[in-house]
Amino acid sequence: MSLSAILECLVFTAETALSLDRLCDLLPEFERVEIKSALFELAAFHEGRAGGVHLAEVAGGWQFRTRPLFQQYVIRHIKAKSAKFSQSSLETLAIIAYRQPITRAEVEHLRGVDCGGVLKTLLEKRLVRILGKKDIPGRPLIYGTSKEFLEVFGLKDLKSLPTLREIQALDDVPRYEKQEELPLGQNDSILVEEDPSLFET
Known about the structure:
This protein is an alpha+beta fold. 43% of the residues lie in helices and 12% in strands. The protein has helices at residues 3-13, 20-26, 32-49, 71-78, 87-99, 104-111, 116-124, 147-152, 164-170; strands spanning 53-58, 61-66, 102-103, 128-133, 141-145. A hairpin with a 2-residue loop joins β1 (53-58) and β2. α1 (3-13) crosses α3 and α5 (87-99) packs across α7.
């Protein structure tokens, strides 16, 4: 019986990414090194066939994922809605991801606003988890990102987060083509409506 075929079945039917440790527990008749080698061979096989799915190492485990190239067709089929995050949620999540373990007070100090509601939402979405309590007066809760956070953003581990240099490099790419100025008369005026959502915290 092929070990690769067994692994393919286990990973395919799992609801979340399966770690190497979990696979070793499920397959005690195989050596750890055999399982690890078979996983990489299976990943290479799916990469080589260039099909609609590939075996990805994500969130500390292995998971079959559809290729981003075919996202529009998958959405068309399952009518899925992509996860939407408010600006405040993304900012809070980024702070926690890069500064964890971190307390609510530390997050609020960095953002400059109250983060109670945002933290509650992130906890409900299971993107953030409570790691314990900080050994200081009041023993505040400390937060960190979860396995679900890694899965949602397709990260192998926290080391896969983009570096500050990589993030800054995005700003070097021009977002808009240069446009000519509009010929405005002396009596012409422009009314600009501010989008309230831009100022949400």
